[in-house]
């Protein structure tokens, strides 16, 4: 395959590579950087007799993303909003906001808590159906170890509910009603879902009491709920607030019966790091991926990379 043919195939694969890189990195800027670096490495190496060009390019992109994730960890960055770096390069933030929402804000938050090799193995296998034999070459482990990395990541992504399924489903229904009412600014709906003596606690030690006071303030600021998504917080249903997939706050919600008895807003980075967050499967479904699509990739064909 000559360079012109490779360039044409690369353009055909660009959207796929961008999707892979975005799920690994959680940043559209970094994903675009990874895609550009993938082209540079591929063009230098040449496709030669590669049978599965998409798989080969995905392998290259995976290694680049793994290197970027490791470098990020060495720098001590807490991406996902705690100390996330924003680049002022003129990109329309709406583009990344829409993409983050399509992937799933809660999913991006949880992925950011995985070790680099775990994240790469999980994204490639569970979201893009890349075989473990190919993932092993990227993470420089055996196929069996790559499988264990993805399995460990999967357990963390889906979490361990602290309540029976029926109780979790009831909690979710109540929190969904609270979130919908908050987004619409519907005072009546908020009063219907909040317990009369509900509380709202925020840092440092600020507290608001009473359904009418909480509902009034919430209804006056419906935009604040726009970036909130349901997630498992320490095994119970709660909310993560993650603009463009960057974790900003967590709401630990206390549900009693069919009402919200109260909630605590946590935004302090050290406290956020101590929370166990996971993607909450929709009611009636197990192991859901939270709003994220599950793209698939054709299997088969040898892959190679530099």
UniProtKB/TrEMBL annotation:
Using the record's annotation, list all stretches that form the RNA polymerase sigma-70 region domain.
Answer: 11-75
Q: Which UniProt keywords apply?
A: Sigma factor, Transcription, Transcription regulation
User: Which segments constitute the RNA polymerase sigma factor 70 region 4 type domain?
Assistant: 108-156
Q: Which residue intervals are annotated with compositional bias (Basic residues) in the record?
A: 294-306
Identify the Pfam families for this entry: Sigma70_r2 (PF04542), Sigma70_r4_2 (PF08281)
Xref: InterPro entries? ECF_Sigma-70_Domain, NTF2-like_dom_sf, RNA_pol_sigma-70_dom, RNA_pol_sigma70_r2, RNA_pol_sigma70_r4_t2, RNA_pol_sigma_r2, RNA_pol_sigma_r3/r4-like, WH-like_DNA-bd_sf
Q: Which domain of life is it from?
A: Bacteria
Q: Record's SUPFAM superfamilies?
A: NTF2-like, Sigma2 domain of RNA polymerase sigma factors, Sigma3 and sigma4 domains of RNA polymerase sigma factors
Disordered: region residues: 286-306
For this chain, the family text in UniProt reads: Belongs to the sigma-70 factor family. ECF subfamily.
- Read off the PANTHER family from this record: ECF RNA POLYMERASE SIGMA FACTOR SIGI-RELATED, SIGMA 19 FACTOR
The UniProt entry, under NCBIfam families, shows:
sigma70-ECF
What is the annotated quaternary arrangement, including any partners? Interacts transiently with the RNA polymerase catalytic core formed by RpoA, RpoB, RpoC and RpoZ (2 alpha, 1 beta, 1 beta' and 1 omega subunit) to form the RNA polymerase holoenzyme that can initiate transcription.
Q: What is this protein called?
A: Sigma-70 family RNA polymerase sigma factor
What species is given as this protein's source?
Actinomadura napierensis
